[in-house]
Amino acid sequence: MRDLWDAEHRCTNCNSIMKKDNMSIEGMEIRAWKCSKCDEIVLHPEDAQKMLVFNKIKKGISVKVGMLGESLVIRFPKEVADFYNIKKGGEVVIKADSKKKLELDVKN
Ligand SMILES: [Zn+2]
Asked: How far, in Å, is the centroid of ligand 1 from the Cα of 46?
């Protein structure tokens, strides 16, 4: 199968051939095509999708606290687990931020 990333793209504004470009948005490597003539930018659809998921998680996703034996448990929604590559048996570090806020460091 032909990779979209290797295909030639033309600018929808000026029809010039667009150049591949890697940009960093909020610490994420995003693939994009940039028009050298008019500066139009098109994000790689896979990476644009990642940005959407990231922005959704940034707003906060509410989860219920459950009980497992003597411990309280929270579940990671699938998109959060996928985005952060959290797997069963994996490790996260719980860190205090304030009395109302916890931070999780994903170790992988
Ligand atoms: Zn252009």
From this structure: 22
